[in-house]
Specification:
By secondary structure, this protein is mainly α. The chain has 6 helices and 2 strands.
Amino acid sequence: MAFYTKAAFGPDCSLGYLARRIHQIGQSLIEPVFAAEGMSGTQWSALMSMLAGRSSTCADLARDLSHDKGATTRLVDAMEQQGWVTRSRAIDDRRVLNLELTPDGEAAAIRCRDRIITYWNVLLTDWDRDEIEKLIELMQKLRTTLDDALTEGLRP
C-alpha cells in the first residue's frame, strides 16, 4: 500500500521539502564557520570528500558533490588558488586530474569539521542518542534508496 495520498500530502510530510529545508537552515547556521576560514560550504564539502577518501580525482569529486564538470573545475580552481588542493595529470591517462589535499587544506577542513561537531552537539543537546542514531540510519537508508533509483534510471 502506498504511503502518500493526495489528501494527506503537504510540506510537513514531504521528504523532499523537509530535506531541502533542513539543508537550507543548517547551511545558514553553519556558514559562519566556513566564512571564518575564507571558504564556502561547497568548498568545505569538497575538502571533506577528499579527506574522507571519497574523491581523489575531479570526476570523483563531481560525482560525490553532484556537480557538473564545469562547476567542479571552477571549484577546484578556487581551492587551488587558496592553497588547499593540488592537481596533477595521471601518468597513465592524461585526461584524469588527480587531486590531493595540501597540509593547509587538510588543516582548514579539520578546523571547520571540529567547530561543526561542537555546534551540532549543542543543537542536539535535547535529543537522545538513540534518536540521533535512528535518524542517521533512516537518512542513510533513504540515500541508498535514492542512489539506487538514480542508478536504475527510475524517473517519474
